Amino acid sequence: MNHRRGAAVLIGGIALLVLIGDGIYVALRSSLGHGFGIGFLVGSVALPLYGLVARALGAGAPIGRDRRRARARARRANVLYAAFVLALVVGARSLGDDALLGVLLGALAGLGCLFFTMSVRELISRR
After folding, report:
1. Contact call for residues 37 and 109 (beta carbons, < 8 A)
2. Out of 40, 65, 70, 74, which residue is the most buried by the measure of CB atoms under 10 Å away?
3. What is the tally of structural domains in the chain?
4. Contact 18, 109 (CB under 8 A)
5. 88 close to 43: Cβ distance less than 8 angstroms
6. Phi (first) and psi of residue 67, to 5 degrees
7. Are 63 and 57 in contact (CB under 8 A)?
8. Dist CA 29 CA 9 (whole Å)
9. How far apart are the C-alpha atoms of 47 and 104, rounded to whole Å?
């Protein structure tokens, strides 16, 4: 096992542990019908969905020859991300006090799932 595959295993394993820990916490905390559970679902779906939207808007495009255009594209993606996180927080506050914690833990679970999936993909593609 080389360093590249070892890093993928380490990141994927930690992400899986975070995902399992979040799932256990949600299962013990409350049902999905309350503010916390709804916030968890919103957070776990919204953050990976933002990644897909940003990718569609060209956030991962190569720099190319025009650096000014690349900076503008990066700035646009950063502003969009800040507005997205602000909308998540404001929207969670409208669901109740527990919903904000649910959104944050849901976002963490969504990222854990994303990192685990990408790590498994990295391991499979490097065979």
Report:
1. no
2. 40
3. 1
4. yes
5. yes
6. -70, -30
7. no
8. 30
9. 10
| Segments forming the whole domain that contains residue 67 | 3-125
Which among 93, 80, 89 is positioned nearest to 107, based on CA atoms? 89
Q: Which amino acid is at 110?
A: G
Outline where 57-96 has alpha helix (H): 67-95
The two tokens of residue 59 are 């956030």
CA distances in angstroms from 88 to 20, 22, 34, 44, 105, listed in the order given: 23, 19, 17, 11, 12
In whole angstroms, what is the distance from residue 42 CA to residue 32 CA?
Answer: 11
Give per-residue pLDDT as tens, 31-88.
Answer: 666 777 777 777 777 777 777 777 777 666 666 777 788 788 778 878 888 888 788 7
pLDDT tens-digit series, residues 4-28:
667 777 777 887 887 787 778 777 7
Closest CA to 15 of 127, 96, 120: 120
Chain centroid to CA 90? 18
Cα(25)–Cα(39) distance, rounded to whole angstroms?
A: 14
Residues 120 and 19: beta-carbon distance below 8 Å: no
